[in-house]
Amino acid sequence: MKHYKDKRRIIAVFIAVILMGLSLSFLIRLNFGTDPASTMNLGIANKLGIDFGTWLLISNGLLLIVVLKFDRSHIGIGTLANMVLIGYSSDFFTWIFDMVIPEGLFTKENIILRIAVLIPSLIIFIFAAATYMSVELGTSPYDAVAFIIASKFDKRHFRLIRICYDVAAAVIGKLLGSTIGVVTVVVALALGPVIAFVKEKLDKYFANGPVG
What we know:
8 helices
């Protein structure tokens, strides 16, 4: 991809995916749901009895085979960063929080506290996800497969195809014991517009200043 030599983009994508892992660890703990992909992967990981990060790496590795076969243009540094860092950074921060956050702090009775933590966590997750997608250094295999499916049909229907794709992932996660909540719905509805906003701002930023 044409942006590989821009160190600012590389730094941005790594910061973004780590922030996604950090905010995701809070979203999981708050139990208001997660994004559709994480909902599915958390359900599968729990059923298999393995760490979220490990399953995320395995599942993305399997999807990567599909992407490599049908459209390699979606693969880049951001793909690898997403595959490895989001799940394992989420597991790492969860491990840290288990040691420092009192057990039972985020119970259903503490709804005000949960909402107070939810709002910044959700904002960080959505903007971090939008940043990683907007720097144009590759997308996750999960996201790439959605683009590939859409390319086989009328691209004007991508949004509908993506909604069906995410709904299917969320339903699979729910059937496997994950929580579908307000976060699942908000991410599905808000991510697209936020990506457009962030991409416009980042394009202006990266168009100025030194590259390399």
